[in-house]
């Protein structure tokens, strides 16, 4: 490393601190002035090292406050349905959930249309927050047709996720996904512990089993903590 450019030495030093979690997510790193003095370089050199790591998504600059280690974004595949609890545990992290609502509701307007029932039909509804290491990464609002999952409301969704139960009960045959970026409203901000004005990823999902439309769900993710990925063979 001694033969590498000075800014790369600083970048490697910062990256090592981040990867070994000597500096955990949220940690405020030394200033450009402090780094330039430590490595006997100009502020411009220290700035380039920091800018590179900001571009890599490892650091985040906050005006007037400093530069902080980023929380690594959780990632889910866009074209597949995976159990979020398994995703979190496969990353070596702790999964937990909080059930906000679990009851019967009338299907009205857009929800009735999306789940394919008459307006006013009684259907099942759950609202659940999913956590990774105690940090909320997804708010799930799901409506289920009781004709195909009659025991849905009897389940303990802190012990298993709705996805896990429905896959076992109604093996999936088709899925539909649409994704949009939104600025969330009050209840979503509160449940996902977001700040006002922060963007949110909203995944609209519908699932079928043997041509029967089983459920429709809205999955909200904090934009700064989550990303969706897709891989397609060509």
TrEMBL record:
Signal peptide: none annotated. Residues 4-72 form the HTH gntR-type domain. Keywords: DNA-binding, Transcription, Transcription regulation. It comes from the Bacteria. InterPro entries: Bact_HTH_transcr_reg (IPR050679), Chorismate_lyase_/UTRA_dom_sf (IPR028978), His_ut_repres (IPR010248), Tscrpt_reg_HTH_GntR (IPR000524), UTRA (IPR011663), WH-like_DNA-bd_sf (IPR036388), WH_DNA-bd_sf (IPR036390). One of its GO terms (molecular function) is DNA-binding transcription factor activity. SUPFAM superfamilies: Chorismate lyase-like, Winged helix' DNA-binding domain. GO terms for biological process: L-histidine metabolic process; negative regulation of DNA-templated transcription. This is Histidine utilization repressor.
């Amino acid at each position: 490393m001694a033969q590498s450019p000075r800014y790369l030495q600083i970048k490697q030093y910062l990256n090592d601190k981040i990867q070994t979690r000597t500096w955990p997510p949220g940690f405020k790193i030394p200033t450009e002035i402090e780094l330039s003095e430590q490595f006997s370089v100009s502020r411009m050199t220290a700035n380039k090292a920091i800018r590179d790591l900001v571009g890599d998504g490892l650091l985040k600059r906050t005006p007037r406050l400093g530069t902080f280690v980023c929380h690594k974004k959780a990632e889910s595949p866009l074209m597949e349905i995976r159990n979020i609890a398994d995703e979190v545990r496969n990353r070596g992290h702790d999964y937990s959930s909080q059930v906000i609502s679990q009851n019967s509701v009338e299907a009205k307007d857009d929800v009735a249309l999306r789940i394919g029932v008459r307006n006013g039909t009684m259907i099942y509804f759950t609202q659940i927050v999913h956590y990774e290491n105690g940090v909320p990464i997804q708010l799930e609002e799901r409506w289920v047709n009781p004709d195909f999952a009659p025991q849905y409301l009897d389940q303990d969704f802190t012990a298993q996720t709705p996805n896990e139960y429905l896959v076992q009960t109604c093996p999936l045959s088709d899925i539909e996904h649409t994704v949009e970026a939104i600025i969330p409203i009050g209840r979503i901000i509160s449940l996902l512990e977001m700040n006002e004005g922060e963007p949110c990823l909203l995944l609209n999902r519908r699932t079928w089993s043997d041509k029967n439309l089983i459920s429709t769900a809205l999955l909200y993710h904090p934009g700064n903590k989550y990303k969706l990925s897709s891989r397609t063979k060509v």
